[in-house]
Amino acid sequence: MRVISGLLGGRTIKGIDIIGTRPTMDRVKESLFATIQPNIGNSTCLDLFGGSASLGIEAISNGANMCYFVDNNKSAIKTINYNIDNLNIKDKCIVINKDYNDALDFFKKNNIKFDIIFLDPPYSMHVINNIIEYIDTNNLLNKNGIIICEVDDLYLKDEFKKIVKYKEKKYGSTYLCFYKN
């Protein structure tokens, strides 16, 4: 895998080999970041299902100030830390080894809010609606913030209280759904 664009463009990142995970395809990642490019500069991001850290690293490469990486798998955390160290971006990263629910509670309790949130859980989990509802109810997304979800079917709601879907793209069997606050 590699970083597609920005300051780290072309650099290699280590992937993970964990059942139920899959890397975001380069063309999907390229389209995703072209779509959100105007929102990335100086942003605080959350890569809630960090995996190899590919999405958060891409955001940092394109100008994000900070990214929180969350994963509950020790192998994924090891890979995230390896990639961060290898790219020398530790000063822009916070790695959290927690279940996504515990991490969301942590952010709520510590009043940590985000400009960009990446939600790319294993497809079989079907938890994104609940996560967005929690984010919406607890104001974890800054005004004009965006959430990007990667799914294999369109089970996602179009709107929540304040957060609404504004764009949807299909790439083979993958869908990207974009929400804004």
Describe the protein in words.
This protein has five helices and seven strands, in the order H-E-H-E-H-E-H-E-H-E-E-E. With 181 residues, the protein is of the alpha/beta class. It has a single domain, classed as 3-Layer(aba) Sandwich (Rossmann fold), CATH 3.40.50.
Structural class: alpha/beta
Strand order of the largest sheet: 3-2-1-4-5-7-6
**Total of DSSP H or I helical runs spanning 4+ residues:** 5
CATH superfamily: Vaccinia Virus protein VP39
| Overall number of structural domains | 1
Beta fraction of the residues? 25-35%
- Give the total of beta strands: 7
CATH A-level architecture: 3-Layer(aba) Sandwich
- Could you please say which CATH topology applies here? Rossmann fold
The gross shape turns out to be globular
Radius of gyration: 15 Å
The protein's oligomeric status is single chain
- Highest CATH level, the class: Alpha Beta
Helix and strand sequence: HEHEHEHEHEEE
Concise synopsis of the structure shown:
This protein has 181 residues and is α/β, with parallel strands linked by helices. It is built from five helices and seven strands; from the N terminus they run αβαβαβαβαβββ.
